[in-house]
Amino acid sequence: MKIRNKPIQNSASWSDTLSTRKAHLNALLKTINAGPGKASPIQTLTINAIKSEMTHIDSQLNRRK
């Protein structure tokens, strides 16, 4: 059985998807940064990865404008 992803129908829905993903990542970032004290090395790596992904999403959204 072959599973196919449904193609995105228009750029507006793709922009909505990216915006939703960015909001989700932002919420995760706030959750990770919520703890008091110094961040562990794993937290630092996770925070940097999330920020990098958010930057990538921003560039994709700007390209679609």
Key structural traits:
65 residues; mainly alpha; 2 helices
How would you describe this structure to a colleague?
The chain has a domain at 15-28 and 41-56. Helices cover 71% and strands 0% of the residues. It is built from 2 helices and no strands. The chain has helices at 11-33, 41-63. The N and C termini lie far apart (38 Å).
Short description:
By secondary structure, the protein is an all-alpha fold.
Q: What is the N-to-C order of secondary-structure elements (H for helix, E for strand)?
A: HH
The chain-level structural class is: mainly alpha
Low-confidence stretches: none
pLDDT averaged residue by residue: 85
Main sheet specs: none
Question: Which geometry do the CA atoms define?
Answer: elongated
How many DSSP helices? 2
Beta-strand segment tally? 0
- Helix content range of the residues, please? over 70%
What share of residues are in beta strands? under 5%
Rg on CA atoms, Å: 15 Å
How many angstroms does the end-to-end distance come to?
38 Å
Which SSEs are present, and which pair or pack?
Elements: H1 11-33, H2 41-63
